[in-house]
């Protein structure tokens, strides 16, 4: 009984960190491919975020990626926000998993 409340709190915290979204949950279950993610980044993200994530028309990812969770990155890619367009309808879940893997490792 004494572990029940802390475990429920931990589960709720983890869901809140991921937003509890179905898209996040689905994409986190996929194994991202770093090589494919690099290609997706080059085709879809580099124009705004720069080849090294330094920012250009969009913000620098090198400043942001280290401070946010993978679920937050997934949410931004899927739903967009600010001036960033949503890619949830134009990238399939595997492409999103691949690009999230790439930016999470490349720009940490």
What features would you describe in this structure?
This protein is an all-alpha fold and 108 residues long. It has a domain at 32-106: Cytochrome c-like domain (Cytochrome Bc1 Complex, Chain D, domain 2, Orthogonal Bundle). 61% of the residues lie in helices and 0% in strands. It has six helices and no strands. It has helices at 4-18, 22-28, 34-49, 61-64, 70-79, 93-106. Helix 2 (22-28) crosses helix 5. The longest helix is centred in the middle third of the chain and has 16 residues, at 34-49. The termini are far apart.
Largest sheet: none
Rg estimate, integer Å? 15 Å
Strand content of the residues, in percent?
under 5%
Total helices: the number is 6
CATH class of the domain at 32-106: Mainly Alpha
Low-confidence stretches: 3-19
Output the helix-strand order. HHHHHH
Output the CATH homologous superfamily of the domain at 32-106.
Cytochrome c-like domain
What CATH calls the topology of the domain at 32-106 is Cytochrome Bc1 Complex, Chain D, domain 2
CATH architecture of the domain at 32-106: Orthogonal Bundle
What is the strand tally? 0
Distance, first to last CA: 39 Å
Q: Overall pLDDT, averaged?
A: 86
What percentage of residues falls in helices of 4 or more residues? 55-70%
Q: Report the structural category.
A: mainly alpha
Using the alpha-carbon principal axes, give the shape: globular
């Amino acid at each position: 009984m004494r572990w029940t409340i802390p475990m429920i709190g931990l589960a709720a915290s983890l869901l809140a960190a991921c937003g509890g979204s179905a898209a996040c949950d689905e994409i986190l279950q996929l194994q991202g491919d770093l090589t494919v993610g690099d290609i997706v980044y080059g085709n879809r993200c580099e124009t705004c975020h720069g080849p090294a994530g330094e920012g250009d028309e969009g913000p620098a990812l090198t400043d942001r990626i280290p401070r946010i969770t993978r679920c937050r990155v997934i949410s931004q890619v899927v739903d967009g926000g600010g001036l960033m367009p949503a890619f949830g309808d134009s990238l399939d879940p595997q492409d999103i998993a691949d690009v999230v893997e790439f930016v999470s490792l490349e720009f940490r």
